[in-house]
């Protein structure tokens, strides 16, 4: 098997040279970059790196695409809906290019890492200047430089290598007190519905020392919440050492907790087949780790789990939940559910509802199954759309009742929150999150943003709590 390629420091330095070249080319002109990000937190983290590189090249981030000199569209491929949104946005930028011919438009991320989508962009969006796949992210400065000088459009797709890791790229994080830290990239699981292993390559872990250094810096800079990211964080380290001497995710968490500073650690996503009791023990022991666990179930039916190639069953999943609750009675548990996977019968779907009731999730993220070209499930017999939609609604209704019952018990309690900022829906209120990641709205002063506050809960709805400063 081909090995992960660690991008050498010389190669990263070469990209710094391209950054300087772009900066000098524009000779101090005022330039703006607009980045549109679709999809998961990993994509958000990638966009922060793209933004970091753009800033080094002299671009100022803007939230207004109309004033941009450089537009990047960082795409997602997990469901068709996300792809269509990215293509529609790309279409909307055409008139900007007509008004400002010097505007450079680039598309990157998971969607364009698929050959057929690359062709779509080539044929239907001739004003897009350049395109690059997920494993080319670190070469963005060079790709931009070449696109600026090329007479033709440039397409940099993945070369079929199993993936790489580049350290030392600049990063421009979103404002606030929260930071993402990618600890690994790619996925090896090949769940039969999922396109991720095809577009993000094989699982590869960053070196523990690099991760610890990044977290140390973030803690020293005053970040209050650090979320460790990976497609399957529980297989962290499998590729770093031989079995037996393996440094795993639980070890990494333990070491991160030793870093001084007042910060909380979250992580996502976990695969139930790899989530270990050792990990749960570390969580229970370490006050720095938030008591919240996102454990995607996908389906409550053993038949469907087998067809999905998930490699666990209901019994194993429930054992993990019981173990977590035994060690951390106040833990919040959330999950992902796919409705209408090919072959899902009424009985299979009832099994999913049954799991919702048994586990009693604090929140679920539910998705209608979306066939993805090139995946095994796309070849299987689909569930009719009307049945899928009706089941989806039943799933939401069931979860609403469960969550309403759970949060009702919180009225009258005191909850400590980390204050995030003004509420998006009501600026008279602040919002914060509890350790269990529950959203709390309350009235208060801006000075509280980024700090902890104690709130007495007066009203509870399934997706938000309301209260007063204690
Ligand atoms: N259709 C619908 N949902 C999907 N997911 C992944 N692939 C698909 C698909 N083809 C969901 C899974 C995963 C989440 C990130 O997206 O639930 O956990
Ligand atoms: Fe996709 Fe499964 Fe990998 Fe998650 S674990 S990214 S669902 S293949």
Radius of gyration, taken over Cα atoms and rounded to an integer in Å: 23 Å
Bound molecules: 5'-deoxyadenosine, iron/sulfur cluster
Uncertain segments:
none
- Assign the structural class, choosing from mainly alpha, mainly beta, alpha/beta, alpha+beta, or little secondary structure: alpha/beta
How do the strands of the widest beta sheet line up side by side? 3-2-4-5-6-7
Give the distance, in angstroms, between the N- and C-terminal Cα atoms. 58 Å
**Total domain units:** 3
Q: What's the CATH class label of the largest domain?
A: Alpha Beta
Count of alpha/pi helices: 14
Quote the average pLDDT: 94
Query: Under the CATH scheme, which architecture of the largest domain would be assigned?
Result: Alpha-Beta Horseshoe
The percentage of residues in β strands lies in 15-25%
Itemize the secondary structure elements and their pairings:
Layout: E1 5-6, H1 9-26, E2 31-37, H2 41-56, E3 59-61, E4 70-75, H3 80-92, H4 94-99, E5 104-109, H5 115-124, E6 130-132, H6 140-149, E7 154-156, E8 164-165, E9 178-182, E10 184-185, H7 196-199, E11 204-205, H8 208-220, E12 225-229, H9 249-257, E13 264-268, H10 277-285, E14 292-294, H11 302-307, H12 314-327, E15 332-339, H13 346-359, E16 363-368, H14 385-408, E17 414-422, E18 430-434, E19 439-442, E20 452-461, E21 464-469
Parallel strand pairs: 1-8, 2-3, 2-4, 4-5, 5-6, 6-7, 9-12, 12-13, 14-15, 15-16, 19-21
Antiparallel strand pairs: 10-11, 17-18, 17-20, 18-19, 20-21
Helix pairs in contact: 1-6, 9-10, 10-12, 13-14
């Amino acid at each position: 098997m081909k090995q992960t390629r660690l991008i050498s420091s010389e190669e990263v330095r070469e990209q710094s040279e391209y950054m300087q070249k772009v900066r000098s080319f524009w000779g101090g002109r005022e330039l703006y970059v607009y980045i549109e990000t679709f999809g998961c937190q990993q994509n958000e983290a990638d966009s922060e790196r793209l933004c970091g590189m753009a800033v080094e090249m002299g671009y100022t981030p803007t939230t207004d695409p109309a004033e941009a000199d450089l537009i990047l569209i960082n795409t997602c491929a997990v469901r068709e809906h996300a792809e269509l949104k990215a293509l529609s946005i790309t279409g909307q930028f055409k008139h900007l290019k007509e008004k400002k011919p010097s505007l450079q438009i680039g598309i990157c991320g998971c969607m364009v890492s698929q050959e057929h989508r690359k062709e779509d962009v080539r044929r239907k969006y001739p004003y897009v200047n350049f395109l690059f796949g997920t494993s080319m992210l670190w070469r963005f400065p060079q790709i931009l430089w070449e696109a600026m000088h090329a007479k033709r459009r440039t397409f940099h797709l993945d070369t079929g290598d199993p993936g790489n890791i580049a350290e030392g790229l600049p990063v421009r994080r979103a404002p606030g007190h929260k930071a993402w830290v990618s600890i690994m990239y790619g996925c090896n699981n090949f769940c039969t519905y999922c396109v991720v292993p095809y577009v993000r390559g094989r699982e590869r872990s960053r070196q523990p020392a690099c991760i610890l250094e990044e977290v140390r810096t973030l803690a020293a800079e005053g970040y209050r919440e650090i979320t460790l990211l990976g497609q399957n964080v529980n297989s962290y380290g499998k590729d770093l050492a031989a079995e037996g001497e393996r440094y795993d995710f639980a070890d990494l968490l333990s070491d991160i907790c030793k870093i001084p500073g007042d910060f909380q650690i979250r992580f996502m996503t976990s695969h139930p087949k790899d989530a270990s009791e050792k990990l749960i023990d570390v969580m229970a022991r370490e006050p720095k780790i938030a008591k919240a666990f996102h454990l995607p179930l996908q389906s409550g039916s053993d038949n469907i789990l087998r067809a999905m190639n998930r490699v666990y069953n209901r019994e194993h999943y429930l054992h993990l939940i019981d173990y977590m609750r035994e060690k951390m009675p106040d833990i919040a548990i959330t999950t992902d559910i796919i409705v209408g996977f090919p072959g899902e019968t009424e009985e299979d779907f009832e099994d999913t509802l049954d799991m919702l009731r048994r586990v009693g999730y604090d929140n679920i993220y539910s998705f209608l199954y979306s066939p993805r070209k090139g995946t095994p499930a796309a070849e299987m017999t689909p569930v009719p759309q009307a049945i899928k939609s009706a089941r989806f609604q039943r799933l939401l209704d069931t979860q609403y009742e469960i969550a309403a019952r759970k949060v009702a018990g919180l009225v009258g309690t005191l909850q400590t929150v980390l204050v995030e900022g003004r509420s998006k829906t009501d600026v008279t209120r602040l919002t914060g999150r509890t350790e269990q990641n529950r959203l709390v709205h309350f009235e208060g002063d801006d000075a509280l943003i980024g700090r902890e506050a104690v709130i007495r809960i007066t009203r509870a709805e399934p997706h938000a709590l309301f209260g007063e400063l204690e």
